[in-house]
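User: Let's play a game. I give you a shape written as tokens, and you guess the letters that built it. Ready? Here's round one.
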């Protein structure tokens, strides 16, 4: 875990953004906060990585969409190169996949450019103190992602508990086939299919054939 800075120590800031107006806006806001010192400006991800090597900033304010090397890959490289450097993402993008990828890459904060610039300052203060800061939409996305991972884990454990025959019946039910049709394909009685269906629904905690279809899609057992 990354620890906070000494309260009396200035945090060295590197700004990485391909828009000069954004860089100047950030610098202007930081002039009022003496605990921060802007030591460099990068106009693309590749330059940001190189500047981290030479300037050794404490915090990098990173845009996502930049030429030569995007902010996600630059973040990964910086975390490998300088694990103690914190990354504050400052972007206009709020896509779920981006937030999750960056979270996995090890960012310390995520702020949207649509938010007040004061939110970026709050993020920098939080990160300087060893904490994290996420725009209002990010926690919701991350919580939902964790819930989805838990659902997938639970489904995976439950699916593994199905017998081979139950897995065969499960897939046919997920495809929307009738009890009679499944019985004919598997050369078993409709009553046996009904019994397998009951066990499958019980083990997977499903309440309908639609639930089975959703599970099959999530496990890449069938295409949509």
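Assistant: Ready! My guess for every position:
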């Amino acid at each position: 875990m990354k620890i906070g800075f000494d309260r009396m120590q200035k945090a060295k800031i590197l700004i990485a953004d391909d828009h000069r107006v954004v860089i100047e806006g950030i610098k202007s806001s930081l002039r009022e906060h003496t605990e921060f010192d802007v030591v460099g400006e990068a106009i693309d991800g590749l330059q940001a990585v190189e500047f981290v090597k030479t300037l050794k900033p404490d915090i990098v304010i990173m845009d996502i969409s930049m030429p030569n090397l995007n902010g996600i890959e630059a973040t990964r490289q910086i975390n490998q190169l300088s694990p103690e450097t914190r990354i504050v993402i400052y972007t206009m993008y709020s896509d779920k996949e981006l937030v999750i990828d960056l979270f996995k890459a090890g960012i310390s904060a995520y702020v949207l450019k649509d938010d007040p610039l004061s939110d970026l300052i709050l993020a920098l203060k939080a990160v300087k103190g060893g904490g994290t800061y996420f725009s209002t939409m990010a926690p919701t996305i991350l919580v939902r992602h964790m819930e989805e991972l838990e659902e997938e884990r639970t489904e995976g454990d439950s699916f593994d508990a199905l017998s081979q025959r139950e897995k065969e019946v499960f897939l046919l039910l997920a495809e929307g086939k009738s009890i009679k049709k499944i019985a004919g394909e598997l050369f078993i009685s409709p009553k046996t299919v009904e019994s397998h269906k009951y066990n499958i629904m019980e083990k997977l905690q499903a309440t309908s054939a639609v639930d089975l279809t959703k599970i099959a899609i999530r496990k890449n057992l069938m295409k949509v």
